[in-house]
Amino acid sequence: MKITQISVFLENRKGRLYDVCSLLGAHHVNIRALTIAETESFGVLRMVVDKCDAAVKLLREHGFVANFTDVVAVEVPDTPGGLAAVLKVFADNDVNVEYMYGFVEKHSDKALLVFRFEDTDVAQQVLAKHSISIVTKQEIEGL
Amino acid sequence: MIWKKDVECLDLAGLKALQSHHLKKLIPYICRNCPVYKQKIDAAGVNPDAIQSIDDIKKLPFTTKEDMRDYYPYGLFSASQDQIHEIHVSSGTTGNPTLVGYTKDDLKLWGDVMARVLCCAGAEPGDTIQIAYGYGLFTGGLGFHYGALEMGLRIIPTSSGQTARQLKIMQDFKPRILGCTPSYALYMAEEAKELGIDPTQGNWKIGIFGAEPWSESMRREIEAAWNMLATDVYGLSEIIGPGVAQECQHKDGLHIFSDVFYPEVIDPATGEEVPEGQDGELTITTLTKQGIPLIRYRTRDIVSIRYDKCRCGRTSPRISKIKGRTDDMIVVRGINVFPSQIEHVLVGIEGTQPHYQIVVDRKARQLDEVEVLVEVEQRFFSDEIRHLSELRERIRKEIQNVLSIGVKVTLVEPKTIERSMGKSQRIVDKRTL
Where residue B386 sits, what CATH number does that domain have? Predict the structure, then answer.
């Protein structure tokens, strides 16, 4: 099952990340996972939040450029070699990872990682075939 | 066909003699009838009797848009009010509007030059023209109307707007000629598709487009969309309205009707004429107008001019498409830069809209730097840095190709570029020159 990631365009200006986070906080949107990709002049903030529709609406209303992207949250054993085992499955099956990042909180004894794949549907099939468990939207919202 | 072959194909010596003849009559006429102009000419230290040939025109002072506003409404008129049969007023976004008035002979002149425009574009006797320029205080609609009347075409005066009706009229009456703004021509093509009409099967075969600057790429788009010949018409209400210059079917410059509208292309900074083929400000003297004749009127439009004979047989000089405006031109490292050039690039790149700003700065190493800020929009934003970087690189390369100088392109958040009174501040010049 895909989950929805929010991405936000940010200029490299003082306080812009704070602006986003305080806006979401003031409206009781909880950030579950986030990462920033940056260049010398701008960055893209990517987040998984509990209320994504409301969050994007809110951000756009406040003049931010924000979009949805399909990503997959994968449970990875929190042991040495746990991530490598999952990545091997992707490599063996020609599933290309665009980028990935970790969740803020821990889900039992597993680590939760967000993957953005080149082809999300193919990636999901491969995950299912190899019985790698992925996290549902409901679970994200309930975290 | 060529509407006024005797003047449009006149050799350059004959043309010069005709222009001299007109100018010799014009200056005393203005001095007799317009105290404001008389004073301007006196102040320039010019004796009207010293104006004997068209070359003497360089002795005369320029007329500017500010003069038009300062002497609003009638200060620059040479004809008395009872001789004026039609007036047109342009909107005054800054200060007074611009008023122009036509005598009976001026209206005849307008019809004549517009008939030349229509023929130049390829209209033939018996053709039908759909005039989708606005009728009213704007000179577009009526200018085309008078020309089509003079030429004896069948006129469908749709004026602008009501696109579905425009398209129905095209289908029902099959006019071969269309007159409107280039952007409206493109808009109508889109609307046609929405309504299930295939624009490539449309009836319009020749378009006469003007009243706004447009690029060669826009021409290709219009020609492909409508399967038609798209020609450029030039004019401005201060001079006559549409009818100053027009492209022939070779689309290799606009023939300016220089027997009545004498062109000079000057360096806007010094006022000196630039050599043939070089860019400069188009300045026009209305040699035969009576109502509000203008001497060396600074159009602020940047063009180049050439005097060689055209393949179509016309000898009238040709001006280039408008390359920009003097009022927003900047010079960077010796290169003239117009915001319109950057606008063309941005419009041409899918996904960008022209919300941009050009920042020119001179850093310690004394080399001017140009930075183009472009607002990122929802529809082309991507979560992948790679896509955004590619977009930025494409904009940078294309601007560099057009301007021939290196620029830095920075993507910025929407609404961060300052807008003054609804319009963006296009250029920020931080240099202390």
Answer: 3.30.300.30
